[in-house]
Amino acid sequence: MNLLRGTARAITVVIISLIATIGPIHAQEELGVYEHLDDTISDDLIFTDELFNQVNLKDAINKPTIISLVYYECPGICSPLLNGLAEALEKTDITMGKDYQVFTISFNQVEKPPLALKKKKTYAKLVTHGDTENGWHFFTGDSANIYRLLNEVGFKVKKEGTQFIHPGTLIVLSPKGKITRYLYGSAYFLPFDIKMAVAEAAQGRSGPTITKMLNYCFSYDPAGKKYVFNVTKISGILILLIALIFLASLSLKSRKSKKTDQIS
Prior knowledge:
Blueprint: H1 2-27, E1 32-33, E2 46-48, E3 54-56, H2 57-60, E4 65-70, H3 78-91, E5 101-106, H4 113-124, H5 132-135, E6 136-139, H6 143-153, E7 155-156, E8 158-160, E9 163-165, E10 169-173, E11 179-184, H7 191-202, H8 214-217, E12 218-221, E13 226-229, H9 231-263
Parallel strand pairs: 4-5, 5-6
Antiparallel strand pairs: 1-7, 2-3, 4-10, 8-9, 10-11, 12-13
Helix pairs in contact: 1-9
């Protein structure tokens, strides 16, 4: 019995420690991705493409559309994210411009079309099958339209100086502008996931986010400008689970012992 009480006290300590560890997440709740599956973007969001054309985003979405929210002068995960997207698209057997299109949109209002065009020239070369000229557009916009779009898709960023702290994710929309899938990652996406997301979007069917746990397991390190594994948080959970299993085992043994004593 004393052992059980001691174990209970130990678990209490672990729980308190775990709560203290998880606490900082709530202080940063404004950052990250808050999924708006099945919501439809507004029909009056106006952005400027790499050739200075004013584009109504909703009108331009006439096929499954993959949206990558970045900023072009990002020193962190934006370039790896776009590299990972291009690599995955190159490995799929679906065709850009025919089966789907990609909109890369800067959430930094100071960035302009010349920078967007420079980025397009870089990444269009990485996808060799399909119409990258008309199938992958790079947009910039004003603060009002950027804010509305980020709010509608649940993509929360925070500006620090001239840089941004932000998540890494792709957002897939149906031909009618409905949000059907979120694909999380900062440098690697599975071609199969991309293909399935596009197929679901074509049918207007939303899909669950299997890898959303990455938002919890990883956090952004402003100093290193990268996502890092939250060892403390995950270790805390594992310790708690082990402690609970240990307590349950002791409780079961205690019950069996009592039954044996009663029988004898």
